[in-house]
Predict the structure of S8 family serine peptidase.
Amino acid sequence: MRINRITAAALCAAGVLASQAALSAPMASSTMTPATVTAAAAQDLVTFGVYLPLRHQAELDALLVQLHDKTSPKYQQWLQPADFIAQFGPRPEDIAAVKNALTARGLTIVSTSAHGVRVSGSAAAVQQAFSTPLLKVTRHSHTRFQARQPLSVPSELASIELRVTGLDALPLKHVHARVLGKVPPTAGDNRYSPTGPYWFDDLKQAYDYPAYSSSTDGSGVSVAVLMSDLIYPDDVAAAFNHEKFTAITGKPAPSVTTVAIDGGGVLNGDGSVEASLDVQQVLGGAPGAKVTLVSIPDLSDDHIMDGYQYIIDSNKYDIVNSSFGGCELGYNPAYNDGQDLTYILQQYHDLFQQGNAQGITFVASSGDEAGLECPTPDYLSGGTNATFVTSVSTPAADPDVTAVGGGNLVTTSSTTTLASAYVRESANADPEVPYDIYGLGANVSGGYWGAGGGVSTIFRKPLYQILANTGSSKWRTLPDVGMQVGGCPFGISASCDPDDSAVIIAYDVDDPDNGGFFGLIGTSVSSPEFVGALALYEQQLGKKNHRMGNANYYLYAAGALQTLFGGTKAPAELQFYHRNNPGFNGVVHDSFPSYNYNYVYGNGSPDVRKLFGLTGYKAAGVPQTSTNP
């Protein structure tokens, strides 16, 4: 296969769409399809979650700082799940009270965790237990039940703070990737264009990964990819075989295992392309890592939380990738008929805090609506003048998550070599035509395609962000770092930027008509890509205690050191990040709030060997060679 100077923009402009129809449904969030809405029938089975908040929050916040402070005797003394729950978890008697109250009302406890319970029962029993009628909403064969008014907690639980998930009208999270089109079988490798589209080993040379060896392949590190649906079994091997991994190394292509939560997802479902991208990007950077796809039925909050709960309780995974997100503002009362649902974001935060205390690192894509993640509230009520507003994506906005944004990579290009060395990056977001973001029947105008970033309105500024000029003295900002994202999706209102780029993955390669290799863009590219780099770093920490918890403490310390010694003019050995990348995210230019931190790249894009102390290893060289298979 050879792509003769085909860029991301060219994939779009040239109409390389032979299999776009086959992939358009899996790539779209199920919230994009018009819904069938009816009153819940009494016998309908309803399932939802009930959580209780953590205790001793001040003590927990202090412990998390100590666990990440090299001068503290508690540094990296990670807790086991039972120890965490004993110190900070809800009281067992409160969970027992919840179980008793709900079972007394005819509901069934499906499972119990240290944070709460998963509950099921007939719609009639749920409506009676919480004194509210339910609506039955079906999209893409997924059925959800939504309370038509605020829940009324059973009287005997009035003294216990309950957080109910799965009975609200919040839209599903979005995957953060889009398919540009199928790479023609008569085309070929991406190395003949300075803007790709790129294979995983092109990115490794560009971002200065260490040369491949058993010491720099992520061995011993376990990664969970949380995503809806399943991947085709032969796609990972197809991607690695294309780059001659086995022929060069003599080793089989990496593999992936799957764990199904809440029944898991389906093959070729809404999240399948995204799951394939995530797995291939992680393994592309760290082929020796043990990667598990934690498959959930859809990207609703209750299923996502169940996935995180499994990851945290099992404590088997060192790093977690989440290439999805949604509107942070959408949990506020203005978006929910006056009901404040931000307690759901606090429950996510409780889970992330426990994971960090156990040494688990959470990484999430920062969103693809640039600095304009959310529509105005009137969109939800059918308004015709809805616009996108300055806002950020969740879960990336949580301070216990590393948010990954980025832009467009430009590399060296030659007709005589596969070399893909770093040249520069840019991040000019692509203006979008108005579109119906959640499929509710009204278009939203003023949007941009590009890496998400900006200022949270929910989470306070974390301690580690004191080390950077983030433009806010009060609130958490994102992203934290950036890498290759790409641009030029369908539905933009102007010409593609010349730097717009993409990556290539394998999808359903055993289907000669609809499957093959595809160009993809989005922060779903950069997030798992960075997870692969983190896996190389954690491998160096050793087998006994190789976890790093909240990676942001490390990332901002490195950024502050580079800034202290001159930023882009710091000595070569302190150039941990590529900075001062030009661009615009629909709200501010990438020089804001400073050249050392902005709302598209965060601290910058990494020089992986320098950032993670791997300069003792040779650099990954030309793709498809022994240093970069």
The CA atoms of residues 263 and 297 lie 7 Å apart.
